[in-house]
């Protein structure tokens, strides 16, 4: 991230518990500081990565605090339950429940969803955000208060065992990059086994959703030397073909999640800047 950290006086942060089926999960809420107690903000609901089996609220904590201050937006970081203890679809239902909780409790966290309701995630979190993008489109709960943007970083959006024939020629990276420094085929197979999701279930492989029409605008970031590279490319293609708004940024010569391992290098810094630029684009209505 940028060397300039936001002043702690520029925001407030609070962890809250959200009831979910069979238990509760934590969300971390960051709200920009303002002298106007009546002021409300758009909201960015974020879902961390980690292959559905690792990760927590600390993955992106610093970045979300910075985004909240820079963009004057409330950020809600979701600590969904992880596999193998909580296999598919628990992470998805937890994340969707957290999103609904945000809408139900908007006033108490100074959110006005008419100013923007962005759902985002990285890697596995990008999978969950993409699936949620499809689910909320058809859910009457969101009528009149729709998700207005999807912020997807290196999303995993289709299981290799479920590649349809018409897309196989576009999905080559899984074979090309089997042993990268940050993500291997063996690692993907193991985490997917722990998750135990049916490969062709469109809630796990949202590329296989019956329709991609009517999705919120999407901003996608992805890397060249990443077995998930073509997931992003195919998703972008399908959204565009369905008449949706989509914008992407491609990072050449780097593997999956490189910006977490080397956050100070110039290309990693560009990733963080692009994330904020993508958020601004979505908040502006994806012009």
Classified by CATH, the class is: Alpha Beta
CATH topology assignment = Rossmann fold
Q: Structural class of the secondary structure composition?
A: alpha/beta
Taken together, the total number of domains comes to 1
Number of helices: 8
Shape: globular
The CATH H-level homologous superfamily: Alpha/Beta hydrolase fold, catalytic domain
| Total count of strands | 8
- Which regions contain 5 or more consecutive residues with pLDDT less than 50? none
Overview of this structure, please?
The chain has 287 residues and is of the alpha/beta class. The chain has a single domain (8-283), classed as Rossmann fold (3-Layer(aba) Sandwich). It has eight helices and eight strands; from the N terminus they run βββαβαβαβααβαβαα. It has helices at residues 61-71, 90-104, 124-137, 173-176, 185-195, 229-241, 258-261, 266-283; strands spanning 11-20, 23-32, 43-47, 74-79, 117-122, 149-153, 218-225, 246-255. The chain has an eight-stranded mixed β-sheet with strand order 1-2-4-3-5-6-7-8, with helices on both faces. Strand 5, helix 3 (124-137) and strand 6 form a beta-alpha-beta unit. Helix 1 crosses helix 8 and helix 2 crosses helix 3. The longest helix is centred in the last third of the chain and has 18 residues, at 266-283. The chain is globular, with a radius of gyration of 18 Å. It starts with 10 loop residues before the first strand and ends with a helix. The mean pLDDT is 97.
